[in-house]
Amino acid sequence: MISLEDKMLVAQNCEEYKPKHYVNITNMSYMSKNCNYCVNYNNGTCNKELFDKIDKMIKTN
Fold first, then answer.
1. What is residue 28's predicted lDDT score, i.e. its pLDDT?
2. What stretches of 1-61 show up as alpha helix (H) in DSSP?
């Protein structure tokens, strides 16, 4: 199982991240980027097949 922390780090480093819902609030700190909130992430999988690539890059650095 992929941890929430990993999903957050990957989402923050993903150029294809697109939120499922846009919220017009100035302070978005409580809604950090997270793969679970991305339109390309469904049923625990990145449809663009970027999760593993980005995760590996983060862990290598």
1. 53
2. 4-12, 51-60
Q: What is the length of the chain?
A: 61
Range of the domain at 30: 4-60
Mean pLDDT of the region 17-41: 79
pTM metric for this prediction:
0.81
Query: What is the C-alpha R_g of the chain?
Result: 12
Residue 48 to residue 60: CA distance in whole angstroms: 21
Per-residue tokens: 1: 């199982």
Instruction: Give the residue from 9, 58, 53 showing the smallest Cα distance to 34.
Output: 9
Total number of domains in the chain: 1
Question: Which residues in 1-61 belong to E strands, given as ranges?
Answer: 41-42, 45-46
Closest among 61, 59, 54 to 13, alpha carbons compared = 54
